[in-house]
């Protein structure tokens, strides 16, 4: 019985991380990108009526997204790492452009946070800021992600 439980734990661990070592650069950046997506979806959901709009929560999520936007880049080593990645080889071959797009995303999230510093928030401005974040993500994906 103990052996069976151990095997089940291993299988569940591998399934939970998609077979990627969560401590590897690939595992860490996937985790950050997943968090970014979830937070971004909540922000957009509030503005698009899918989630109840809460000004305080919106501001907190904007700050969280801004903090997250600075994290994944450290997990892109200078050479392509092992593992099934959605990143194109261009990430490693065109580092200057990749870093430029990373800084652009960081700028869009900072502007989003700046739009949440004075209540009441202007929802039309917030919508533009969230769209800018989404567009920034998409532009990087178009250049550097395998779909």
From TrEMBL:
Pfam family, one: Cytochrom_C_2
Modification(s) after translation: Binds 1 heme group per subunit.
SUPFAM superfamilies reported for this sequence: Cytochromes
InterPro entries assigned: Cyt_c/b562, Cyt_c_II, Cyt_c_prime
Ligand binding (heme c): 137, 140-141
Gene Ontology molecular-function annotations: electron transfer activity; heme binding; iron ion binding
Gene Ontology CC terms: periplasmic space
The entry's keywords: Electron transport, Heme, Iron, Metal-binding, Transport
PROSITE patterns for the chain: CYTCII, PROKAR_LIPOPROTEIN
One GO biological process term: electron transport chain
Name used for this protein in its record: Cytochrome c
Organism: Denitrificimonas caeni
Upper lineage: Bacteria, Pseudomonadati, Pseudomonadota, Gammaproteobacteria, Pseudomonadales
């Amino acid at each position: 019985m103990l052996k069976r439980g151990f095997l089940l734990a291993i299988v569940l661990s591998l399934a939970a991380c998609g077979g990627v070592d969560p401590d590897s650069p690939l595992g860490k950046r996937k985790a950050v990108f997943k968090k970014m997506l979830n937070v971004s979806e909540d922000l957009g959901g509030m503005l698009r009526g899918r989630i109840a709009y809460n000004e305080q929560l919106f501001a907190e999520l904007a700050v969280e997204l801004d903090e997250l936007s600075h994290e994944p880049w450290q997990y892109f080593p200078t050479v392509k790492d092992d593992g099934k990645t959605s990143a194109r080889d261009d990430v490693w071959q065109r580092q200057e452009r990749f870093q430029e797009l990373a800084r652009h995303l960081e700028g869009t999230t900072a502007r989003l946070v700046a739009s949440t510093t004075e209540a009441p928030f202007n929802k039309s401005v917030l919508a533009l800021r969230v769209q800018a974040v989404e567009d920034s993500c998409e532009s990087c994906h178009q250049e550097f992600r395998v779909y």
